[in-house]
Amino acid sequence: MIDPLDFLAIDALLTAEEKLVRSQVRAFVDARVLPNVARWFEEGTFPRELARELGKLGVLGMHLSGYECAGASAVAYGLACLELEAGDTGVRSFASVQGSLAMYAIHRFGSEEQRSTWLAPMARGERIGCFGLTEPDFGSNPAGMRAAARRDGDDWILRGTKMWITNGSLADVAVVWAQTADDVRGFLVPRGTRGFTTRDIDRKLSLRASTTSELVFDDCRLPADALLPEARGLRAPLRVLDEARYGIVWGAMGAARSCYAAALEYAKSREQFDRPIGGFQLVQARLVAMLLELQKGTLLALHLGRMKDDGRLQSPHISFGKLNNVQSALDIARSARALLGANGVTLEYPVMRHMANLESVSTYEGTSEIHTLVLGHAITGLAAFT
Question: Which range of residues forms the domain containing residue 303?
Answer without folding.
Answer: 236-380
